[in-house]
Amino acid sequence: METADFMPGAAAIAAIKKDIEVYEAKRASVARAAKWRAPLFVGLVVVFVALIAWLFNKVADPNEQWFSTPHVFLYVVGFVVAVVLYFRAIRPAARLQQSFRQTLMPIIFGFIGDMRYQHDVTPHSFDRLPRETVGGFTMSRFDDIISGRYDGFAFELYEADLWDGGATKNKATTFKGVVVAFETIEPFPGILVAARRASGVIGFFRGMFAPRMQELPSGVPELDAAYEFRTNNVEAARPLVTGRLAQALKWLGETWPDEPARVALNGSDGFLLLPQPKNFFELPDISVPLDYASHVAPMISDLGAMLATAALVRKIGAS
Known about the structure:
Number of helices: 9
Largest sheet: 7 strands, antiparallel
Oligomer: single chain
Low-confidence stretches: none
Number of strands: 7
Mean pLDDT: 83
Keywords: Membrane, Transmembrane, Transmembrane helix
Order of helices and strands: HHHHEEEEHEHEHHEH
Radius of gyration: 28 Å
Structural class: alpha+beta
Protein name: DUF3137 domain-containing protein
Number of domains: 2
Shape: elongated
């Protein structure tokens, strides 16, 4: 299955562009209002304070012009009021900035059936991800979470940052990238994990916390050097590890060459982990006009590539 199979058609792209135009009109209006509201509000405070200070000079001692106790009190109050009015002036822009992603993500990925966008929450499928796939971690953060159904393919895709922050002062990342969770075509009777081969302390703790998981080779030297294949059902896993899973990992090595992709099967749940420091769904600042070709099309292309890759992995356990 090719990436193009997961790309929206011409009608869907036209609808996305139309929705972006509506959003752009609102964004531009709020941006223009913020440009004059803040200087106007703060300027009025400055003029008012200067006028009152001038009136104070009429009754103040000649040696305390502009710096008497009432003057100082006036300046402090004026400063506080100016700060309050400044934030009130930019509040509409701040509100739009806060809802920026919640507004645009459903628009950009509106061609996905039952599309749901979340941010900074724990994905529903994360608890079912075998921990042997990512190693030990004590801290986690999730950025964009996109779930839905496309072309008969239900999925949950999310950006995850997992690290061990308890042992050292430095952030020891165990995984940072994209996780695609999906329902397998046929359930695997147990757990099967293809994870980056660990060494030293990481490998020791992985073995200690997964005593029921057995390691088995794929028979492909380059894969066995890069991966650990672990399972709690050797008989069911062996034909997959030496067959379709090995073929899929070789293809993934060419598609995602920076760091080995990881795969996990847990019953009817499948997981594809793509290590990548890049923020795939990064949007421009609210002050920058949103352009379909520059900002939106690359995100749709990346999503299509990841869905196509996950669709290939789904076929590993199919008969």
